[in-house]
Amino acid sequence: MIDQNDFVVMSPRFYYVDYNGNNRQEVDIWYEDGGLRLLSTYPYDINASLNNKYSNVSDGDINNTSHFYHQDYYSGSKSLSDYQNWYLQDDTKVAKKMGTASLIALDYEQRLYVGDYTGLPSGVSSEDALKGVQEYLGAYFIPNTAKALPIGDNDLNNELKNGYVIVSFDMYTIDNFNRNVTDYHLAYSSSHANMFNIENFDTTQNGFSLVANDVAFYDLNKASTDDYSLKGIY
User: What does the pLDDT read at residue 177?
Assistant: First the structure.
C-alpha cells in the first residue's frame, strides 16, 4: 500500500432504528436535488483536504510523507525542500474529491506515513518503518435533505422518521487500482480476521445494540441547517 494507485475503500450500508434502538432494518437513502434522487444511483460528491483545521495532522507527518513522495512519484523540477513546502502549504490544503456518499475511495492524497523509525533493529530501514504504518484521513456525510425509505420503496408516504440512520461501513483495501470490490487486498471485517472484534468494538453503546461496522448515526428529524437561522443586519 505504498503506490499512487492503492486505495482504502469504504462502502456504506444504511439502517434505520427508532429512537429506542429497535426495529432495525436496512434502508435506501433518497435526497432532494431538483427531484427525489436515490443516493446509490445519483452519487453525492464528497470533497475534503488532508491538511485542514479539523484534521489535526502534524507538519512533521506531512513532511515525512512528502519526502518519499518526492523520491517515489515526483518527476518535476522542484528541489526536495521546495516540494515539501509546496506540499505542506498548498497541495494538502486543497479539497480533493475522495468519492461519494455511496462509495469513499481514499488514495495517496489522503495518506500519511506515520511509522516510528527510531531505535530500529539491524536490517530494518527507516523508510520501511515509516511507510509500514499509514494513516488515511477523509470525510463523510449524507445530504442535508436525506430521507430513509424501506429498500426498493420510493413512496414518501412510507418515509421513516422518529429515529436514526446508522451508517455501516464495509472497509477494505484495493491494490494497484483494481476496483473490483470482490477482489480486495485486505478487509477490515473479513471472515478470517474481523478487526472490529479483535479491537473489542463495543456493541452496546449508549443503550443501543450495534453490530460491527456501525460507525455513525444521523437523526432523521434533524438537519445540519437547523444549526443556523437568518436574521437581519442593521
Answer: 62
